[in-house]
Amino acid sequence: MAITIRTARKEDCAAMMTLIHELAVFEKAPDAVTVSMEEFIESGFGKNPVWWAFVAVDGLQVVGMSLYYIRYSTWKGKRLYLEDLIINEPYRGKGIGKMLLDRTIAHAKEEGYSGMMWQVLDWNTPAIKFYESYSATLDGEWINVSLNFDK
Asked: Which of 39, 65, 109, 135 has the fewest Cβ atoms within 10 Å of its own Cβ atom?
């Protein structure tokens, strides 16, 4: 296994969407992914991208991804928001998540962002332990809020 980490390309989107669906199943929400492939591609590789990603590749196969966007904090300035860190199940526990997270952290530092943020489900103990190994702060004080619009 010779894993390489690189910037995602438009042709990676189908494999990335497969990983996103795999994550939805893992998070017990298999029907929650409603974004179309067309919107996903346009949002990452269109005229005004709103997300960027790194992918982990084994040979020619995408086996993991770190998808992020930039958010602005009135207290901290520009911060990288890690939307998803996903590793294909057979590849978990092999250090690929660490490779992707390290590359994402390095990118945030290279760009001069004040830090990174992300979420983890409270029952995902392996992920929590992984993030704690980075000395990440887990804040149980804030409540997630979302507002969905019908398309």
From this structure: 135
pLDDT in tens, 121-146: 888 898 989 899 999 998 888 878 88
Q: Which of the four CATH numbers 3.40.630.30, 3.30.70.100, 1.10.3720.10, 3.40.50.620 does domain 3-132 have?
A: 3.40.630.30
Active site residue 131: yes
Q: Which of 81, 91, 131, 134 is catalytic?
A: 131
3-state SS record for the chain? CCEEEEECCHHHHHHHHHHHHHHHHHCCCCCCCCCCHHHHHHHHHCCCCCCEEEEEEECCEEEEEEEEEEEEECCCEEEEEEEEEEECHHHCCCCHHHHHHHHHHHHHHHCCCCCEECCCCCCCHHHHHHHHCCCCCCCCCCCCCCCCCCC
Domain assignments of the chain as residue spans, ordered by start: 3-132
